[in-house]
Predict the 3D structure of the following.
Amino acid sequence: MNPIMQHQALFNQFVDFILQKNVLSVGEIQKSEPMINVDQEVRSLEISYENDSSVSVKLPGKQSVPYDCRHLGFRDSRAKAWRYFIDILSNDGGSFNFGPAYEYPEGDRLKRIKVKHYDAQWKLCDEASKRLLSFFEKEFGWVFPKGYKLYEKVTTGSEGDRKFKFKVVTPYFSNINKEAEADFSELDEIALISEINGLNNEFSINPECGGEASSRLVLAIKTGQKKYGWSDNHMRAMVTG
C-alpha cells in the first residue's frame, strides 16, 4: 500500500476510535439530564417519623413504605445527621432553624463573631439532605439539577425558619387508636399476616382512603416486627407486594 494511503487509513481508524469513545447514546444523555418536574415530585412526597431508626416514605397513590436509616444512606441510628433529621420529623410542623449566624458584641455591627452552633446545624442538615437526595436518585430514579436544595425558607414563619420541600406528616403513632394496637398485639403471627393482607388489599383497591387504613397497616407491620422479629426487608415486601 502507498505510504500516504497507509497513513491516511491509520488516521481514519484513530478518528473513528476517538468518536466511538466520546459519543453518548440518547439514553445516556437523558439519564444525566435533570428531570423537568423533579421539584414537583419532591413536593408530592410524604415522609413521616416511625421510630428512632426508621421512617415511612409515601409516593402519591402508593402505600407508605418503611425504610431503615441505613437504607437511606446513614451509618446507623446514632449518626448525628440522622438524629438531626429524626428530630425534625418528630417535631410538630417539621420546621427547623439554624439560629443566628453571627453575634455582635455590644451591638457593634462591625465586630461580628461567627456562631459555631449555626455552622454545626447547617452541616448536619446539609449532610442529611445529601444522603436523602442520593436515596431518591437510587430508589426512584430521580435526577436533580446541580446545587438542588432539599429545603427552603419558610416565608410565613419566624426569621430563619426552614422546612424540607417534601411533606412532613404527623407521626403515625401519635394518632393511632390504642385499642387497635392492643388488638394487633393479641393476634398470633398467621392472624396478624391475614390482617395485614386485608388492609393491604383495602389500600390497593382505594389508595385515596389514605389515613386510617394506611396508619393501621403500618401499626400492624410494626407490631409484627416487635413481636415476631420481622426484618425490614420482610416489612417492605408486605406493603409493596
Residues 67 and 239 are 12 Å apart (CA to CA).
